[in-house]
Amino acid sequence: MFSADVRNYEEVAKAIEETANTFGLIDTIIAGDAGNLVANMQTISSMASEVYLK
Hints:
Elements: H1 9-23, H2 48-53
């Protein structure tokens, strides 16, 4: 398992890359950034978490 601070785009990108390189295709992502945001991962902005953390 790899983790990253969801407020840091580079950390998230690195965690996704490391996960894919280790395990192959990623089927599910669990994001626990404490926001109450319900959104489709294919359409959400990479900056959406920042809005909820401010």
